[in-house]
Amino acid sequence: MSRILYMGGVMVYEERNAWTGLVLSVIAMTAYVVLVLQQADGGPLTAVDWFPLMLWTIGIGIAATIVTTILWGIAAGMRDPDGATRSDIRDRDISRMGGRVEQAFVAIAGIGVIVLCAVGADVFWIANTMFFGFGVSAVVGGIARVIAYRRGLV
Question: Model-level pTM?
């Protein structure tokens, strides 16, 4: 898999973390959608008991990200003990850029939540807008970081 994710050399610590967050965010959001649709079973989505599903998805997603980061770090540490957790100014700059991208999408989701509250939308739609706002921000921020690692910052 590392050959798919990196075409040469050793992937740096922060890039491994970006890939981990990106992949697991997509998996968690997809799993949540599947679970909600299964529970709806053709009925209205607002009738689904979404809260426990959302909490479990968030919790398992965080735990999976931590475990994967640790395991990938251990594997990288075996290959390159000195560089496994090293980061430099480029990593910091890429992290900042990715954070700004993420912040923009969280702000957009926040505006969506405010609009939904203003029109009296069901709590299901309000909560899911914020959930997917966080998810999309993580995915887009991860993509921005990975592209920056591959092609450099402009």
Answer: 0.84
